[in-house]
Write a sequence for this structure.
């Protein structure tokens, strides 16, 4: 039976980042993943791209991954947000009812940081996987989790290969359907937004100039997110039925519907690659740890992609948990005890809950066509856009750069 300091179940972006962070602090780590990793690196596995907050990208730079990912990433220097059918930034003469965020308005940045970076998920997985391999971190895949138990001093997991692993702490980075969370009896609040996101990539005729656009339509947000090589990731939210229909129509008809929402302000566009669909909902665990189990990322919280904060919440979890565990280990503490894990939960609980509540409010406020609400939203957006201090705070908060920052989010190793 092999003993580790920490076993991470789930080798997604958050799980692999935690493995790199803990290893950099001297802890011995094993990663367990049920999916064959070659499948996870294939272009057909995940068509999404993620907006990475600038402080979260600092974490990757500190861990030696940022320099690999930066050439594969696209800066987001500006973001325009419009309500409903208001043309906002896409109009020849923009109406007053839109939000504009610009990186130049944030003063507390280093090295000309953007608001964030758009990175394709497959590129992130590949870079993190190569870093895991280079550092000699054990990755066991594909393998299923058969059993999990604790004896008060250690936690053990039995794998479908017949191997048993032991550690002071098990971390669930399995995603929203965490088997370890369910087995531990941690309650999980969740609901469906009755929306699905259709995701695709387009090539554009005119340069996007590193600007992201988000249009709040009655059926859900429609986002145009810049990628390198003058491409854009489209995140198109519709009701489940309409999203499923969009996936089933031929490419020509899909393109006609897409063009009607995209507009012509970036010139001719063409589809690149396949279409993908993802159901949207909210999930929130009532506890972030129990016994010798800690929850990380989507195992602890899953939110609507309306503001691109889902993966960033997980990466902020990583920075806090890594710092708590590394410092506890250096002090000779048992890293799997409630005393240690509650520090992590206390550090992350408020941000995770408040962000989930705010994102849920945005979905409910903007994903409807109520005329009265539309009028109120328009006035509110116009007023918000005229308060620089408030706009700056929102940009810094979305950039993961507010509050008590862990060292990794400041670009420093623990």
């Amino acid at each position: 039976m092999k003993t580790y300091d920490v076993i991470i179940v789930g080798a997604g972006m958050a799980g692999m980042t935690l493995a790199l962070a803990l290893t950099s602090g001297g802890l011995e780590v094993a990663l367990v993943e049920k999916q064959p990793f070659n499948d996870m690196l294939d272009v057909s596995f995940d068509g999404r791209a993620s907006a990475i907050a600038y402080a979260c990208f600092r974490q990757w730079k500190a861990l030696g991954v940022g320099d690999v990912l930066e050439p594969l990433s696209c800066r987001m220097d500006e973001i325009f947000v419009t309500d409903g059918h208001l043309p906002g930034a896409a109009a020849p003469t923009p109406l007053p009812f839109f939000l504009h965020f610009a990186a130049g308005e944030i003063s507390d940045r280093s090295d000309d940081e953007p608001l964030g970076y758009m990175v394709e998920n497959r590129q992130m997985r590949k870079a993190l996987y190569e870093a895991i391999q280079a550092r000699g971190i054990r990755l066991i895949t594909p393998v299923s989790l058969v059993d999990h138990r604790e004896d008060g001093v250690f936690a053990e997991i039995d794998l479908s290969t017949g191997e048993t692993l032991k550690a002071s702490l098990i971390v669930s980075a399995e995603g929203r359907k965490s088997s370890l969370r369910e087995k531990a009896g941690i309650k999980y609040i969740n609901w469906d937004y009755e929306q699905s996101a259709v995701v695709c990539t387009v090539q554009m005729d005119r340069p996007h100039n590193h600007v992201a656009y988000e249009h709040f339509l009655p059926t859900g947000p429609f986002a145009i997110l810049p990628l390198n090589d003058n491409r854009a990731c489209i995140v198109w939210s519709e009701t489940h039925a309409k999203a499923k229909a969009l996936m089933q129509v031929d490419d020509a008809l899909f393109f006609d519907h897409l063009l009607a929402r995209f507009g012509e302000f970036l010139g001719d566009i063409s589809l690149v690659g396949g279409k993908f669909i993802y159901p949207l909902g909210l999930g929130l665990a009532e506890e972030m740890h129990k016994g010798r189990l800690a929850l990380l990322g989507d195992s602890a919280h899953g939110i609507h992609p309306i503001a691109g904060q889902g993966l960033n919440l997980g990466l902020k979890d990583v920075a806090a948990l890594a710092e708590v565990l590394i410092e506890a280990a250096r002090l000779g503490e048992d890293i799997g005890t409630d005393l240690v894990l509650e520090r992590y939960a206390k550090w992350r609980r408020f941000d995770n809950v408040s962000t989930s509540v705010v994102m849920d409010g945005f979905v409910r406020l903007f994903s409807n066509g109520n005329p009265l609400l539309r009028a109120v939203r328009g006035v509110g957006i116009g007023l918000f856009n005229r308060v620089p201090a408030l706009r700056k705070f929102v940009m810094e908060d979305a950039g993961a750069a507010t509050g008590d920052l862990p060292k990794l989010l400041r670009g420093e190793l623990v």
Q: What stands out?
A: The chain has a mean pLDDT of 90. The chain has twelve helices and 19 strands. The first helix runs from residue 13 to 24.
